[in-house]
Amino acid sequence: MTIDKKFVEQFINITTKAALASFYLVGKKDKNSADKAAVDSMRKQLNNINMKGQIVIGEGELDEAPMLFIGEKLGTNEGPEFDIAVDPLEGTNFAANNLPGALSVIAIAEKNKLFKAPETYMEKISSKAKEKNVVDLDYSIKKNIYNLSEYLDKKPENLTACILDRPRHNKIIEELKKLNVNIKFISDGDVSGALLVTEDKYNVDIFLGIGGGPEGVLAATALDAFECSFQGRFLFESETEKKRAKQMGINDLTKKYELNEIVTGDSIFCATGITPGDLVSGIYIDGSEFTSETLVTHKDSGIKKVIKLKQKI
Questions:
Q1: d(CA 286, CA 111)
Q2: Is the pTM of this model over 0.85?
Q3: What are the backbone dihedrals phi and psi of residue 63, each rounded to the nearest 5 degrees, phi first?
Q4: Contact residues for 252 (Cβ-Cβ < 8 A; gap 6+)
Q5: Which CATH superfamily hosts domain 6-114+266-312?
Q6: Which tens digit of pLDDT belongs to each residue from 79-128?
Q7: Which of 44, 164, 295, 311 measures 20 to 30 Å from 19, CA to CA?
Q8: Which residues contact 282 (CB under 8 A, 6 or more apart)?
Q9: CATH number of the domain at 121-262, out of 3.40.50.360, 3.90.1530.30, 3.90.1180.10, 3.40.190.90?
């Protein structure tokens, strides 16, 4: 089974509307209100789609409404069954402080074909290497860089690694500096960080480090369409997190997940810019019209491009 191409346009519309709703609160120093605006818009639009949709990756649990919670059912209850992963406002701090890189993100897959990721940290790595055993979470930084260097026919000093600027990454950063690798630091937003390996124009060869597990699944959906590599391993910091993972069906808590274990079958991914960033431009309002940019992928039809739209508000 594949997902009908007609849904591509519908899901672009969902992230575009959510991005616009959040845009009105950009720079207001209120990340919760900006997030809520995106959530409310996304929920409303999702409920208009002819589908039996269920959130498998959301922003919390049922008692944390108004978030789009895990298990929430959406759509008209007519049509195909979809698993849905959402991050209505990826980069809440970016939006609150009018900084680059805020996005509205959604991914959908066929029923039971999208990994149900707990809200814990994930060790992850993505790269331009399509073949296996070039980069791997179990390899040292040095081995990954040397392997990738050979694979891409570049010297290590001509490679660029993208990493979240966090104290937990100090050891990795030291290793990269020793190897003379160029480093692109990001302060938040590791969905977009992981996707910078998809196109040469972004000038990023590898993304690595520890970030959010749900964000890892969202990024993996797009990376699958681009045929890039991705691996993830959840990091559980408490017994509560471990218990929650087991309730979600994760029995091996140390398992390294390959991309084809995270998303199987067909999928659609959309990320619309709220503020301008590396992947896409932000919302721009001119009178009664607004312009948006959305990175969209649809695995089955081979769509993987940035779509620019100009619409009436």
A1: 40
A2: yes
A3: -80, 5
A4: none
A5: Fructose-1,6-Bisphosphatase, subunit A, domain 1 (3.30.540.10)
A6: 999 999 999 999 999 999 999 999 999 999 999 999 988 889 999 999 99
A7: 164
A8: 23, 100, 102, 273, 274, 275, 276, 293
A9: 3.40.190.90
